[in-house]
Amino acid sequence: MAFESNQPMDIRVSAISHQSVELLNDLGAWQDIQAMRVCPYKRLETWEHPECRTRFHSDSLGLEQLGFIVENRLVQLGLWNQFSQFDEIALFCPDSLAHIELGDLPLLHLSSGQQIQAQWVIGADGANSKVRDLAGIGITAWDYRQYCMLVNVETELPQQDITWQQFFPSGPRSFLPLCGNQGSLVWYDKPQRIRQLLAKTPKQLENEVHSYFPSELGQVKVLQSGAFPLTRRHAQSYSNNRCILMGDSAHTINPLAGQGVNLGFKDVAKFIELVAESGCINDSVLAQYESQRKRDNLLMQSGMDVFYKGFSNDLLPLKIARNAALKIADKAGPLKEKVLKYALGL
Q1: Please, what's the largest Cα pairwise distance for the chain?
Q2: CB-count burial class (<10 Å; 0-12, 13-18, 19+) for 316
């Protein structure tokens, strides 16, 4: 569906890093995305106890912003708009993948009955990837036994230059800024609690938000909401039977720091780089792609799990230790800057 400025905000949004913006710009999509709706942010804060905060600011790196909060649908639409610029791209839409005959050259069977002979198949078809399943690639996965609720709100306070997150034993609660005094609230909790929240009227949900979110948020008006379960997945291989996985089809991550989409874009950027260097797709390219991207993705998955588990209990000694760590991290100077650069892809 084409974009119109009066459309409601997408319930799914992502924090797009500088490195992801560079890739989208190289693909010609970023200009279209910017022309629709993006919300740049300059500050990031995270805390458990209000007096023990870690703060980041774009000024410390000499940047105009730390990143952009962008609706997922608009990222997809910006990329979709570029397809017509390339004669090499043929669209089969609406259609879907039904089956793959594996062999020296995979044969794709579409739901419409159309067949496509391919040299390689790239599966970028999401967490429940059909390409991954048909290629015979297994996954390592576990359920966090938590749900993530997303609530789009209209905010009384202008706070579009900051994204923040507060930790609670039941899970973090976050604010991501959107255009026009709107924001996306992220609420982690047990499935039963999230189901209770989803059953409430917008006014009842507003009362819950005011009761359980930090005072920084101020008064809000609930516009829409949704939820999804938290599951970690990692493909046991990034390629098999001439099928190659990228993005969520290869790995999903706890959305704690909003890095999932950026990891996917890193997959794409690295694959483009390796193919450009080699001049073709071959076993060496696939081995390098998997080695380099699997390591980075696993590091980010594990790092997010450490944060998640470290803050998901109410033991007093651990609570004191983690709040002290957040306060120390705020004064960490070069180390803090290095962590920020890694997160931004700089």
Answers
A1: 62
A2: exposed
Helix/strand/coil for 118: coil
pLDDT band at 6 (very low <50, low <70, confident <90, very high): confident
State the residue for tokens 């200009």.
31
pLDDT digits (tens, 9 = 90+) for 264-298: 999 999 999 999 999 999 999 999 999 999 999 99
47-104 tens-digit pLDDT: 888 888 888 889 888 889 999 999 999 999 999 999 988 888 999 989 999 999 998 9
- For residues 109 and 48, give the distance between their C-alpha atoms in angstroms, rounded to a whole number: 51
Contact 151, 209 (CB under 8 A): yes
Packed helices 260-278 and 18-26: angle between N→C axes, nearest 10 degrees: 50
Counting residues of the chain whose pLDDT is more than 70, the rounded percentage is: 88
Q: What is the dihedral of CA 306, 312, 316, 321, to 10 degrees?
A: 30
| Spatial separation of the C-alpha atoms in residues 54 and 289, rounded to whole Å | 34
Estimate the crossing angle of helix 334-344 against helix 316-330, to 10 degrees: 90
Question: Is the pLDDT confidence value at 141 over 90?
Answer: no
**Secondary structure element (H or E) that encloses residue 162, with its range:** strand 162-166
The alpha carbon torsion through 150, 151, 156, 157 (nearest 10 deg) reads 0
Phi, psi dihedrals of residue 146, rounded to the nearest 5°:
-140, 155
**130 vs 123: CA distance, rounded Å:** 8
- The rounded radius of gyration (Å) of the Cα atoms in the chain is 21
CA distance to 182, 216, 217, 218, 298, per residue, from 156 (Å) = 9, 11, 8, 6, 39
The predicted pLDDT at position 314 comes to 63
70 Cβ partners below 8 Å, 6+ apart? 13, 14, 16, 33, 37, 38, 39
